Amino acid sequence: MRQPVSDEIPIEVRLADAGATLHLVYAQGEAFALPAEFLRVLTPSAEARGHNGQGGHTVSGKAKVRVTGVDPVGNYALRLTFDDGHHTGLYTWEYLRELSLDQTAKWLAYLEELAAQGLSR
């Protein structure tokens, strides 16, 4: 696993709105608010993404999910715990940065995926 680049590592990580939002602030002054639902449905866990790109599924029905825990994993990731019991995805600094920068496009793609499968938030 590659070492995270310093601009990928937030200088502040905090939960807000009773776990509904994860706030990340970067040294360059950038700040992002990632909704718990967004983080949960885009979990990097093998359960949702599959192994080696195979066997994954679309996560649905998480509109009211909350983050209940944020734990560092080494110096490369966070383990987020959600109130639905999910806690297996490791959100690397690189992945959190990607989610932050591409939030709108990733959310729209997720909504299209839901609609195509007849699933709901």
What is the topological layout?
Layout: E1 12-16, E2 21-25, E3 31-35, H1 36-41, H2 46-49, E4 50-51, E5 54-55, E6 67-73, E7 77-82, E8 90-92, H3 93-101, H4 103-117
Antiparallel strand pairs: 1-2, 2-3, 4-5, 6-7, 7-8
N-to-C SSE string, H for helix and E for strand: EEEHHEEEEEHH
Structural class: alpha+beta
Radius of gyration: 14 Å
Q: Would you give the CATH topology? A: NE0471 N-terminal domain-like
Number of domains: 1
Known CATH architecture: 2-Layer Sandwich
Q: Could you give the count of β-strands? A: 8
Please report the first level of CATH classification, the CATH class.
Alpha Beta
- Give the overall average pLDDT: 91
With helices defined by DSSP (H or I, 4 residues minimum), what is the helix count?
4
Description:
This protein is of the alpha+beta class and 121 residues long. It has a single domain, classed as 2-Layer Sandwich (NE0471 N-terminal domain-like), CATH 3.30.2020.30. The protein has helices spanning 36-41, 46-49, 93-101, 103-117; strands spanning 12-16, 21-25, 31-35, 50-51, 54-55, 67-73, 77-82, 90-92. The strands form three sheets. The protein has a three-stranded antiparallel sheet with strand order 1-2-3. Strands 6-7-8 form a three-stranded antiparallel sheet. The protein has a two-stranded antiparallel sheet with strand order 4-5. The protein is globular and about 40 Å long. The relative contact order is 0.20.
